[in-house]
Amino acid sequence: METETATRWLTEDEQCTWRAHLDVSRLLMHQLEKDLQPFGLTNNDYEILVNLSESADLRLRMSDLAAATLQSKSRLSHQITRMESAGLVRRENCESDRRGLYAVLTDQGMETMRRVAPHHVASVRKHFIDLMTPEALGDLRASLAPVADHLRGHRGKS
Fold first, then answer.
1. pLDDT, tens digit only, all 158 positions of the chain
2. Distance CA 90, CA 69 (A)
3. What φ, ψ does residue 155 adopt, rounded to 5°?
4. Taking the model in full, what pTM does it have?
5. Hey, how many other C-beta atoms are within 10 angstroms of the C-beta on 73?
6. Using N-to-C axis directions, what is the helix angle for 12-36 and 43-53, rounded to 10°?
7. Between vectors from CA 79 to CA 66 and to CA 24, what angle results, nearest 5°?
8. How many angstroms separate the CA atoms of 99 and 107, rounded?
């Protein structure tokens, strides 16, 4: 026999907090994307470039890059194809696994990171970091950490 659980509706304060989070998330990502447009990049492009620039040998297996960027392998493959056409990345075969592929940051991709990163950081500061006190940033980080940990634990699960 199934037990019916009553829905725990959000209180007014919880709903206001939730909606503020959604608004900030959407508006911030929209603004950051807009600020990357003059460089011909999207947020997804930039995230891929960051992941590759911070990885050993400037390369990641496509499956690891898909997991790191929360993209399906199919979507990432299309994204990498577009970025290959722009000269930012290239694919290389994986010697240890004939089916595996690496995404590799090209010299042009690294130069793009060096050129764009200062502008991106300035955008993040202008539209997020500098609008809060150091205390508020610490409180926000502490508040979001358990949510991030919880969601990381659920990745790949139904």
1. 455 689 999 999 999 999 999 999 999 999 999 999 999 999 999 999 999 999 999 999 999 999 999 999 999 999 999 999 999 999 999 877 667 899 999 999 999 999 999 999 999 999 999 999 999 999 999 999 999 999 988 876 65
2. 17
3. -60, 135
4. 0.88
5. 11
6. 80
7. 75
8. 25
